[in-house]
Design brief:
alpha+beta, Lsm12-like, 4-stranded antiparallel β-sheet, LSM12 protein, 155 residues, extended, AD, LSM12_ABD
């Protein structure tokens, strides 16, 4: 398909897992009833890497949910993972670069590891994450209050 981004040298690709297709059929009568066999679509390394990465991220999310990790912990993991790819779950703990462990309730004081640049960097990411979460909550509360005022005035 043409690219939804509008870039001329890109295209959208829709992948269908044929394991979930029970009975293929043609929906357009003008198309011949027998489709010519198509050569397999070559998968470029970038696409294969992206698919593998996406799968790993989804599996990590699924693990966190099944392990009973809090929503705050899951969000923190995603925030750290955006910056540091070497980030994984070890039961309910977040392990970053095999050096820093963040235990529930996932606050700055729960970051443990050998003192150094890795621990300092992870602590800064955790601090910023919670500052951003708090500022988002403040913004949402002020928007809710404004909506409430607007509703009261229009009544």
């Amino acid at each position: 398909c043409p690219s939804s981004s509008g870039k001329p040298n890109h295209a959208d690709i829709l992948l269908v897992n044929l394991q979930y297709v029970s009975e293929p059929y043609l929906c357009c009568p003008r198309v011949p009833s027998v489709l010519p066999s198509q050569p397999p679509v070559p998968v470029c390394p970038q696409l294969a890497n992206k698919a593998r990465t996406e799968k790993e991220e989804k599996m990590s999310q699924a693990y966190a949910i099944s392990a009973g990790v809090s929503l705050e912990g899951q969000q923190l993991f995603q925030t750290i993972h955006k910056t540091i790819k070497d980030c994984k779950w070890q039961e309910k703990n977040i392990v970053v670069m095999e050096e820093v462990v963040i235990a529930p309730p996932y606050q700055v004081e729960n970051c443990k590891g050998k003192e150094g640049s890795a621990l300092s960097h992870v602590r800064k990411i955790v601090e910023k994450h919670f500052r951003d979460v708090e500022s988002q909550k403040v913004l949402q509360r002020s928007q809710a209050q404004q909506t409430q005022k607007d509703t009261s005035l229009s009544s």
